[in-house]
Amino acid sequence: MSDSRKCLIYICSILCFTGAASQEFQLEPQNLFVLKDSDAQFRVTIQGPWEVMTWDVGDVQVLTLPINSPSIPATGRFEASFCVTDDTSCVQFTIINTTRNDTGRVACTVQNRPGQKVAQLHVQESGTVSILGGDTTVPQDEQVEFQCVTSAWFPTPTITWNQNGEAVNSSLYNTTSVADGDFFNATSVLKFQAVRNTTVQCLATIPALTNPVSSSVFMVVVPVPPDWTVLIAVVVSFGGCALLVLLIIAIVYCCKRRKQKQTNYQDEMSRRVRTQSVVSVSGQRQGRVNNAYTPDSQTSVAPSEVSDFDQEKVYSVITLPDILHSHYVENSDGGPYNTVDETGFRKHRHVTIV
After folding, report:
1. What is d(CA 55, CA 62) in angstroms, rounded to the nearest whole number?
2. Whether this model's pTM surpasses 0.90
3. Where are the beta strands (DSSP E) in 181-266?
4. Residues 95 and 102: beta-carbon distance below 8 Å
5. Which residue has the higher pLDDT, 225 or 134?
6. With contact defined as beta carbons under 8 Å apart, do 55 and 27 qualify?
7. DSSP letter assigned to residue 286
8. How many angstroms separate the CA atoms of 95 and 78, rounded?
9. What is d(CA 332, CA 1) in angstroms, rounded to the nearest whole number?
10. Whole-angstrom Cα distance, residue 108 to residue 27?
């Protein structure tokens, strides 16, 4: 047999033995998350006989367990118990009242069995959760904001939100955390538009928790009165445009009327000028002095003066009683009557030019 074949057979033998051994010796769970002050339990199963088992927490061996021991040993916060079924041995290892110092590796070693089985223990602490502000009432369609605060957690908790029992999309909120000594505080802010009454719930969790720690508030949404701002703005805009158009039309109309009046005035003046020009050219006779006029003290007109009138002139003398110069005298029967001057009448002259 060649050397290469011998080497291959040897490697296969080792792998097969290791696989068989791994099937004969198992430690569960590989990762255990527990809350502080709770118990942490690991279980190891072994096929076939064995004699001595040891357990290490961190770098310290805390328990040695002989299989033929008349009693199960216990040292402080560490203990073990047997569970045997058919040809499989089962040992349960318990760490009582865990502390954060217990965090780390937990190893089990069995004599006469190759290798060592190692698991990881994670001791965590839960803190408080609260939504600031409590229950609230907001107008419909308003952008609302809720702030969830967690404190005294280890490690940093994972925060999620629910609305009416349904998970909220992670894009609607953001979370920040800060260290506070040996603990972590986290703040998460949720923003969304208020549409209807909603129960808002903030949940914080860590792997050691079976159920998240939560806080809830109730949001009441009230309808808002209609906003007439847009409508008023539109009406005012159209009204302003209409007034502007009417103003422009009025200005144009007034300008046209003014221009038309000016044109009519100019036409009238031109017509009058033309009329006067025609009259001047045709030699229209102008008025002359009335030579027949005599003052009131003159009783007659000389023939020479009358002869100066044209045939078209008509001269007439009308005599009327002179009431202004009449005298008031009582008649014989006691009644009054009017008297006139010596002639009895006062003369009045009227001259008419035809």
Report:
1. 6
2. no
3. 183-193, 198-205, 213-222
4. yes
5. 134
6. no
7. P
8. 5
9. 203
10. 8
